[in-house]
Specification:
alpha/beta, globular, disordered N terminus
């Protein structure tokens, strides 16, 4: 379900159901120009506001975030290095009563990231196909584990928040009894447009 105006009568229909608020994990870019920095900050500000409106159907009680393999301070240290704004959102929800649960296994995440990096530097078709095979295998294992973590921890009537890249989140085959809400503020489309334009410039 797209995030929109959820009026009280409609909200009541979701109260007893399991709910998952899905936030695309937008990262800062190294040496990013000022226009991207502005979009990045605006995106996470809008995410915070949209989540607050969405929680009329249920306050976030469980948090699932990609790249997190351990709970507690270790998870905060990882997030502080890779996405400080996502960490701010997560800490706010924890202060309001939510818990952060590890979504990944280190034995899967590490090789997945290594193969993803390899794909960025491969130049020959033969090697690309071999690397893609290893990468695809790790993608499936990673998403299957994420599915099990979410479905095994999100209780009846509870709301959870998933922070994950859209391309991965769209491949998650979650149980049909989980109502999925997409948190997609206007600035997200602006970021996608910015990235497409930069890709065109690079290809040119």
């Amino acid at each position: 379900m797209e995030l929109g105006q959820i009026e009280r009568p409609a909200a009541e229909a979701f109260v007893a159901k399991r709910k998952l608020y899905c936030v695309s994990n937008v990262y800062s870019l190294k040496d990013a120009p000022e226009d991207y920095k502005g979009l990045f900050e605006k995106y996470w500000d809008e995410v915070t506001k949209h989540l607050e409106r969405l929680e009329v159907v249920g306050k976030v009680r469980k948090i699932f975030c990609e790249n997190i393999t351990s709970p507690g301070e270790e998870a905060f240290d990882v997030l502080a290095r890779i996405n400080e704004r996502a960490l701010q959102v997560i800490k706010k929800k924890i202060e309001e009563g939510a818990v952060l649960l590890p979504l990944e296994r280190e034995e899967t995440l590490g090789p997945f990231l290594d193969w993803a990096n390899c794909l960025n530097i491969v130049r020959t078709k033969e090697v690309f196909e071999k690397v893609m095979g290893f990468y695809s295998e790790l993608v499936e294992k990673r998403l299957q584990h994420a599915k099990e973590v979410i479905e095994g921890n999100l209780l009846e009537g509870e709301a959870g928040m998933l922070i994950m890249r859209d391309e991965d989140r769209m491949r998650l085959q979650l149980s049909p009894d989980i109502e999925v809400f997409l948190v997609t503020p206007p600035s997200y489309d602006a970021i996608l447009k910015w990235l497409r334009e930069k890709m065109k410039d690079r290809e040119a």
